[in-house]
Write a structure and sequence with these properties.
The protein is α/β, with parallel strands linked by helices and 638 residues long. The protein is built from 20 helices and 29 strands. The chain folds into four domains: 52 residues, no CATH class; 323 residues, Rossmann fold (3-Layer(aba) Sandwich), CATH 3.40.50.150; 92 residues, no CATH class; 120 residues, no CATH class. The chain is 31% helix and 21% strand. Helix 19 links the parallel strand 27 and strand 28.
């Protein structure tokens, strides 16, 4: 049964999908009209709850509304900004200028379960920072009008401590965004969130609800200062936190990081037994760091001498016997005639790959001052306050979850100065990786009195883009100085793969139909007919009055295509402009002409192997029937 939303260019309605999934699992809890019966649902999942008055739960003002807002579709879209993009043909990196909740909704179809790692550094709730407002229609201009920043820029709400909903405002802002972010993560994906003491306890409870308490991985303490400074409530604060959750902890088999230079230097001994494994270091085999385990208390026999541990051995008896056979143990004789036992640990595994270590729950540095230095290397220091250090984010992005990490997609939807982009770009240059980043930054207006504004940066997103532009330009310049022949030889192309980014902007839908308001006095069928008439009248000049590329981007994005799609014109069509769109995962033929020629219709009657989309108003009744009859679900009129 068709409804108005079938004709709207909306992002997916995840509330509808959740209900459909529930209906498939438990059709008996729905009415004959297809409505969810709440009482029947309670009988299934929590029969005692009808009379229950007290239970543990995390509640705050506005929570239900924030959850509904997360899963409702958006009629906004993204348009490509060619002028602010850099080397767009060489990269799949994206910088998106726009309100991040709307952007996340737009990404939620094409990038669902595609993101391996999310890092966010959201506004801390200090009473001075801005909190994003999700209501752009109440006492303010529409977002996309106000975001033009001509005079006052985008308006966001400050969250002062005198506000009775001080914590609720912040939680509502975070809740809706984390709900959508979770959908974007792969099953083995993880999210890192920087936070300070003001909301860390609330954030933990919030993430327990969104991701599941069982998917909590770690709350890292980041020592971000060297010492000194003003005391708060009698203490000098030297740390913040980085919270880590998994999408599905059961899908994660291993978490590891590269050895630091200091750790790698400990492997300074060498033998000829395993040449491929390189140098080794030794560690004591006895241990006091584990709980009491009787099976680890046994004698090791060496040259007829029984050697007992002070408490217990680190390894089982079977493993020790195998290590003795492989000459992996070292016996150091003591003055009393006994022995101390140490074991060899090689820097590389049996395949010659350098081993990795385990992350620590305490990060001693890099310090906040280093973040300012990283930023100052490309832009003036006073333009952006307290950016995160590049080295800190590199540490996080070098964490390997399961196998491989050099081709993953990393998302940062509070991009700020764009530190994530620099960290990923430099990591790829260092290890030959092909990681891709997606940065999302609100076009928040800079203060006209600020140094940023005076330097020409009217929006924070301008700084995000400019910083990453300069990072890439510096690398290209260094490459040019190292290998000038690559840039001068005729016919040869410099190796710039992955260096650059495409810029997209959040804007209002190009389709006037999104302004249609149903008449509450009419039936659904009558409103659909009114909508069809509205579309015919308002969009009559759509293709000629609007940018065709922007229309295609909006349609493909809503149909689940990633933003790295390519368009190729199909020359076999003589009377229509038809393009082949693909993002390497999906593909479709698309036509935005105002009239579909008879020859084109005849072609698709015998070529039904690919999906085809055209405008509804390009068809008469006969053409539409023929295409639907021969192509079935592979044909769609928009």
């Amino acid at each position: 049964m068709e409804n108005i939303n079938d004709y709207m260019p909306l992002s997916p309605d995840w509330n509808k999908e959740r209900l459909e999934t529930l209906k498939k699992l438990m059709p008996d809890i729905f009415t004959n009209e297809g409505k969810l019966n709440i009482n029947e649902l309670k009988k299934v999942v929590e029969p005692e709850s009808v009379h229950e008055t007290e239970r543990y739960e995390f509640r705050w003002f506005g929570k239900s509304k924030a959850k509904r807002e997360a899963f409702t579709p958006t009629d906004a879209t993204l348009i490509y900004d060619e002028h602010r993009s850099l080397n767009p043909t060489e990269t799949e990196n994206l910088i998106i200028e726009g309100e991040n909740l709307q952007v996340l909704k737009l990404l939620s179809n094409a990038y669902r379960e595609q993101i391996k790692c999310i890092y966010i550094d959201p506004p801390y709730n200090t009473g001075k920072d801005f909190v994003y407002s999700d209501n752009f229609n109440q006492d303010r201009k529409e977002y996309w009008e106000d975001a033009e920043y001509v005079e006052n820029g985008l308006k966001v709400d400050s969250n002062v401590e005198t506000d009775g909903r001080y914590h609720s405002n912040w939680l509502n802002m975070m809740y809706s965004r984390l709900l959508i972010a979770r959908q974007l993560l792969r099953e083995d994906g993880v999210i890192f969130i920087s936070i300070d003491d003001n909301e860390v306890h609330h954030l933990r409870k919030l993430c327990d609800e969104v991701f599941g308490e069982e998917n909590f991985i770690e709350q890292m303490v980041w020592k971000n200062k060297t010492g000194g400074g003003a005391a708060t409530k009698g203490w000098i604060g030297l740390h913040e936190y980085i919270i880590c959750y998994a999408k599905n902890r059961m899908e994660i088999n291993e978490i590891s990081i590269p050895y630091s230079k200091k750790t790698a230097s400990m492997y300074n001994k060498k033998d000829d037994k395993f040449p491929v494994r390189g140098h080794y270091a030794t560690w004591p085999l006895d241990t006091t760091s584990m709980g009491d385990r009787p099976n680890l208390k046994y004698p090791i026999i060496h040259k007829g001498v029984e050697i007992w541990p002070e408490q217990q051995w680190l390894w089982s008896k079977k493993r020790v016997i195998e290590a003795q056979k492989e000459d992996m143990l070292i016996f150091n004789k003591q003055k009393d005639g006994g022995y101390k036992v140490r074991f060899k640990g090689y820097l590389k595994d049996e395949y010659g790959q350098v081993r990795r270590g385990k992350p620590l729950s305490i990060l001693d540095g890099p310090y906040t001052q280093e973040g300012s230095k990283n930023f100052q290397a490309f832009l003036a220091k006073s333009i952006f306050t307290f950016p995160k250090p590049v080295k800190l984010l590199k540490k996080l992005y070098e964490i390997r979850v399961n196998e491989g990490s050099k081709n993953d997609i990393i998302l940062d939807f509070f991009a700020g100065s764009g530190t994530t982009g620099q960290a990923i770009t430099e990591l790829n240059q260092a290890d030959g990786g092909n990681r891709k980043y997606i940065l999302v930054q609100l076009p928040e207006a800079t203060d006209p009195k600020s140094e940023a504004f005076k330097a020409g940066y009217k929006k924070i997103s301008d700084i995000t883009i400019e910083r990453n532009k300069r990072v890439v330009e510096k690398i290209i310049e260094e490459k040019q100085n190292e290998q000038p022949d690559l840039f001068t030889k005729e016919g040869e192309k410099p190796k710039l793969e992955g260096l650059g980014f495409k810029v997209f902007k959040l804007v209002k839908s190009s389709f006037p139909r999104v302004e249609f308001a149903p008449d509450p006095t009419k039936t659904d069928a009558e409103n659909i007919e009114l909508l069809k008439k509205y579309i015919a009248e308002k969009e009559a000049q759509l293709v000629t009055a609007f940018n065709k590329d922007e229309l295609i981007t909006e349609i493909l994005l809503k149909k689940g295509f990633q933003l790295n799609y390519t368009l190729t014109k199909r020359n076999e069509f003589k009377e229509n402009d038809i393009f082949f769109a693909t993002d390497d995962k999906k593909e479709m033929l698309i036509c935005l002409d105002v009239d579909l020629a008879d020859t084109t219709v005849e072609y698709f009657k015998t070529h039904t192997d690919q999906k085809f989309l055209c405008l509804e108003r390009a068809l008469n009744t006969t053409k539409k029937w023929n295409l639907k009859h021969y192509m079935g679900e592979k044909f769609e009129a928009f």
